[in-house]
What we know:
Blueprint: H1 9-39, H2 50-88, H3 91-136
Amino acid sequence: MTTLKNITPNKEAMLLSMKKQLKDNISSIIDNFSEIVKIAKIEEIGQVSKSTQNEQELFEAQVRAANMVRASQSLLKLISDLKLLYILNDFKSINESVAHNCQEFKSLQLDCNEKLKIIREEMTSHLYELEDEYYSSLYK
Length: 140
């Protein structure tokens, strides 16, 4: 994890912006959800007709649900941005991974070289045997 000493002013401003966006989206979800719950209350007799009031409440609920979905999608994008920011700025982990891969590939290369040497030696011995058999045969 990065400490506060390692954060540049640009990154700090970006993190503060993300924090504000997080708070705004969460408050939007909470506000819209509480308003949807308020709409579901028992009807009161008003000046508008029952069907008109129902349509108005339905439309308001749809708009508030759409606002909740938009805020949720914004939170998902924020999470994705934070993951990307963490991955791109985690140089220590990236360097460790590259060093580990290099070491693994070098050991694999040494292993392959040893196996190729063994195969070469076996091929050489078999080739000598075949040449000896060929030159000493009667069918030559």
